[in-house]
Amino acid sequence: MILALKTADHITSAWLFADADVSEAVGHMEWESGRSLSDQLLARLAGFIEAHQLELASLTGLLIFSGPGSFTSLRIGHTTLNALADSLNIPVVGVGGEDWLKHGRQLLTQAQSGRPALPEYGAPANITKPKS
């Protein structure tokens, strides 16, 4: 089972696919996460997976929308799925663009575990420099 996630803006979306070759999602959910994404994400994903009579251990691959999008939202989504992939020893792939779900499932067929997905912000990160 493949879990796909998009956290690029205030709406968070997740999909479940039976495998990388199946184009029709087994399940889909989305919610307005706003500024509560870090508080909600893991519990929402666990509930989504359980609602389909599955366990986290049933996942064979993870797919994340890599961007562009909100710096914080992308970081939260990538950190969560990278940690999940590492703990389950399964591959995670990050892909951007309009056809990211299809392209990402294709990449998952050849992906290896142990490699994190990295976000693509679409612009340099606007991070405040520390005061000296």
Describe the structure.
The chain has helices at 37-51, 71-88, 100-108; strands at 2-6, 11-17, 27-32, 61-65, 92-95. It is α/β, with parallel strands linked by helices. A five-stranded mixed beta sheet has the order 3-2-1-4-5, with helices on both faces. A hairpin with a 4-residue loop joins strand 1 and strand 2 (11-17). The mean pLDDT is 91.
Q: Briefly note the structural class of the backbone.
A: alpha/beta
Provide the helix percentage. Answer: 25-40%
Q: What is the makeup of the main sheet?
A: 5 strands, mixed
- The tally of strands reads 5
- Our measurement of the CA-to-CA distance between the termini, rounded to an integer number of angstroms, reads 49 Å
Bin the strand percentage: 15-25%
List keywords for this structure.
132 residues, alpha/beta, single chain, 5-stranded mixed beta sheet
Q: In a nutshell, what does this entry contain?
A:
With 132 residues, the chain is an alpha/beta fold. It has helices at 37-51, 71-88, 100-108, and strands spanning 2-6, 11-17, 27-32, 61-65, 92-95.
Reconstruct the topology from this structure.
Blueprint: E1 2-6, E2 11-17, E3 27-32, H1 37-51, E4 61-65, H2 71-88, E5 92-95, H3 100-108
Parallel strand pairs: 1-4, 4-5
Antiparallel strand pairs: 1-2, 2-3
Helix pairs in contact: 1-2
